[in-house]
Design a protein that fits this description.
Blueprint: E1 9-16, H1 23-33, E2 37-49, E3 52-58, H2 61-70, E4 76-81, H3 87-100, E5 105-107, H4 122-130, E6 138-140, H5 144-151, H6 161-169, E7 175-178, E8 188-193, E9 196-201, H7 212-225, H8 230-254
Parallel strand pairs: 1-2, 1-4, 4-5, 5-6, 6-7
Antiparallel strand pairs: 2-3, 7-8, 8-9
């Protein structure tokens, strides 16, 4: 009997990037490597390069709702949410995530580009804090600056990681993966879930890869779409990112 190939769909919601090293374009690249079908809903169009955000055009929430309506018949196995651009768009995406629960949604609260430049204003950050970042089917994946903004803290130090992850998770989300890649020394990521709090530490790789956070979030969404348990999905997604960064290091060494 011929075996039928099952292709699962991951919905990427976020902002475009001309170089596709981050945002929706990066999600499509990662999804192809995981052999999932990537569906997209664009919240904003950006002009970015190595110097940061040159321009940002945020789409109205009505445009997001129309895109969601166009996907009404799609069988979505997981969602990856990135930069949304406005409070109205955060509200719109929050309503959509509620409507598809318990489908898991990896929410990467992108507030700024890694090279500099805002991708969200204070109203959008506040709305995400009180709405989308409290939903029971959300896996929240903030970096240190994003977690500090969500918690109203000036900064999060290495000794604060577990408390910060636990506090964010207590607001109602399924889980929090707090990314500590910007820490001095070896990076540590902390996962807070219904099973408790666990830290994952790895030796630092001597390479900087644009869009690391987007890559990790999309890899995690792809692993969840495949049916992996949360902890296993986190481990696999982290390994995927480290493989990509190691390849970059080797490429630079041989250049």
């Amino acid at each position: 009997m011929e075996r039928r190939l099952i292709v699962r769909s991951v919905l990427s919601i976020g902002t475009s990037h001309p170089w596709n090293v981050a945002g929706i374009g990066r999600d499509i690249v990662v999804g192809a490597e995981f052999e999932v079908r990537v569906l997209t809903v664009i919240a904003a169009v950006s002009a970015q390069d190595e110097r940061g955000v040159r321009a940002l055009h945020v789409l109205p929430a009505a445009a997001l709702r129309a895109q969601f309506d166009a996907l009404a018949t799609a069988e979505i196995a997981a969602v990856r949410v990135g930069a949304l651009g406005s409070a109205e768009n955060v509200t719109c995406v929050g309503a959509f995530l509620r409507s598809i629960a318990p489908v898991p949604a990896v929410l990467d609260p992108v507030f700024a580009a890694s090279a500099g430049g805002a991708l969200a204003d204070e109203a959008a950050i506040a709305k995400l804090r009180e709405d989308a970042a409290t939903l029971g089917n959300v896996v929240l994946t903030p970096n240190l600056d994003e977690a500090a903004a969500l918690l109203g803290r000036a900064r999060i130090a290495r000794g604060d990681l577990e408390d910060a992850a636990r506090t964010l998770r207590a607001r109602g989300v399924l889980a929090v993966l707090l990314k500590g890649g910007h820490l001095a020394g070896d990076p540590v990521d902390v996962l807070a879930s219904g099973d408790g709090v666990e830290a994952f530490s790895s030796p630092r790789i001597g390479a900087e890869m644009p869009g690391t956070g987007c890559t990790l979030a999309m890899a995690l969404a792809c692993e969840l779409a495949r049916g992996r348990a949360l902890r296993d999905a986190v481990i696999a997604a982290r390994a995927y990112v480290r493989t990509k960064m190691t390849a970059m290091t080797r490429g630079k060494a041989s250049a």
